[in-house]
Design goal:
By secondary structure, this protein is an alpha+beta fold. 63% of the residues lie in helices and 7% in strands. It contains ten helices and four strands; from the N terminus they run ααβααβββαααααα. A hairpin with a 2-residue loop joins strand 3 and strand 4. The longest helix has 37 residues. The radius of gyration is 26 Å and the shape is elongated.
Length: 245
């Protein structure tokens, strides 16, 4: 998809090319007819390309840009109710993801959340928002029972990538709820039992969690992140969305 952020650079260089073409076109021409013909053809071609490129870039900016990158921020509630896993799997496998609007993608993501939240035993379903992030590197994040999606990435990433991201953030909700409940129910002594090894590692990881992606190694190796990535991979396999290399 077209990247709106590159528009000022494209306009600037297009303007320079146009000015350079006009200046050299009106300079003193060579007296040789053959060279003069080549001169005219070269600059007419350059001028034609510039006058085509600039309107095309402006058109892309104001058409696809509105749909994919200037999505009106809205909270989408995931409605509770029975959903069929097999039906959702068939939909995900057959639907042409790139043709969907952000709202349509959000609805399918909501269906996925509903099915898998039930499997995880989550009672309070998270809401979904699609926003224009200032930090374009961030794909999505979970906070306060809400999954925030970056409109740019939701508009450009593949179906498998979007579902993997959803699963990853949904699992963060599961982890947070489990950690909170554990702290109020289980004693420190009980958590030392081998049975609770993974849960204990999550509690420790949560206490040392680094949200600043600038510390990438610490963030990537955090047990909460590793477990969420593993869960996302399992969900891709479950729904038959593993992308071929």
């Amino acid at each position: 998809m077209y990247d709106q952020n590159k528009m000022p650079v494209i306009v600037f260089f297009t303007f320079l090319i146009l000015m350079g073409t006009l200046i050299t076109f009106f300079r003193k021409r060579n007296k040789c007819k053959k060279l003069r013909l080549i001169y005219y053809m070269r600059h007419i071609t350059a001028f034609a390309l510039v006058t085509i490129i600039l309107p095309a870039q402006l058109f892309l900016s104001f058409s696809t840009g509105d749909e994919y990158y200037s999505y009106i921020e809205a909270e989408i509630q995931v409605e509770s109710g029975a959903r069929d896993y097999n039906e959702l799997k068939e939909t995900l496998q057959n639907i042409k993801w790139s043709t969907l609007t952000l709202e349509e993608k959000s609805e399918i993501i909501g269906e996925f959340i509903l099915v898998e939240a039930e499997n995880l035993g989550l009672k309070h379903l998270p809401s979904i928002t699609v926003e224009d992030f200032e930090n374009t590197r961030t794909v999505a994040f979970y906070e306060n029972n809400m999954i925030h999606f970056n409109a740019y990435h939701l508009g450009t990433r593949s179906k498998a990538q979007c579902i993997a991201t959803t699963a990853h953030e949904l699992y963060h909700k599961y982890q947070i709820e489990l950690i909170d409940k554990t702290k109020t129910i289980l004693s420190e002594e009980t958590l030392q039992l081998q049975y609770f090894d993974e849960l204990s590692s999550w509690i420790s990881a949560d206490a040392n969690y680094i949200k600043d992606k600038g510390h990438y190694d610490s963030y990537y190796k955090n047990d909460l992140e590793q477990s969420s990535r593993e869960y996302a991979e399992k969900m891709l396999e479950k729904y038959g969305l593993v992308e071929k290399e």
